[in-house]
Amino acid sequence: MSSIDPATFAAQFAQIEIQPFKQRYQLQTNTYQSQLSALGKVESAMREFRTALNEMNSSTSSIIKNSTSISQEGYFTANADAKALSGSYQIFVEQVATSHQVSTGMPADLDATTEIPKTGNLEFTVNGKTMTIDLSTVDTDGDGVTTVSDLTKAINNNSDNPGVNATLVRSNGQT
């Protein structure tokens, strides 16, 4: 009869007893690892999908393409971007802009260097807004002489200017 080592026998017996538990544990671990990997792939795919959706709906690109059309070209332009609200819009021109020009009948010998008075005020009223020019402050170049050219600069540069544009025009030798 051979001698059996009790420690070896106990170790082998314990291995046989726990083998089914180890196999079940390893199988569950492998299953959990596979599920975790699959969830990681789903998360990555969802992130890529969200990025693609954001790119399609960015300010420079959109799934929905807006466009404009005008029934009578040449009167104005219309543009639409990705954030424009869909719809049909009617444009009504209430009043067409016009310009108004006034000229004075000045003496024939008047030119840009003609002196004007250095005292008093000159007032312009346009649409109820008044601009006052103090003639004592009109000498813009500081030479002590107030000229028609200085006055046009004072009118055009006045902070209260209601829309007046002063210009010296020479026509047929006259200013």
Query: Given the C-alpha coordinates, what overall shape results?
Result: rod-shaped
Summed over residues and divided by their number, the pLDDT gives a mean of 82
The helix content, as a percent range, equals 25-40%
Number of strands: 2
Strand-residue fraction? 5-15%
pLDDT below 50 for ≥5 consecutive residues: which ranges? none
Can you walk through the features of this model?
This protein is mostly helical and 175 residues long. It folds into 2 domains: 56 residues; 73 residues, no CATH class. 35% of the residues lie in helices and 7% in strands. It is built from 2 helices and 2 strands, in the order H-E-E-H. A two-stranded antiparallel sheet has the order 1-2. Strand 1 and strand 2 form a beta hairpin. It is rod-shaped, with a radius of gyration of 45 Å. The N and C termini lie far apart (143 Å).
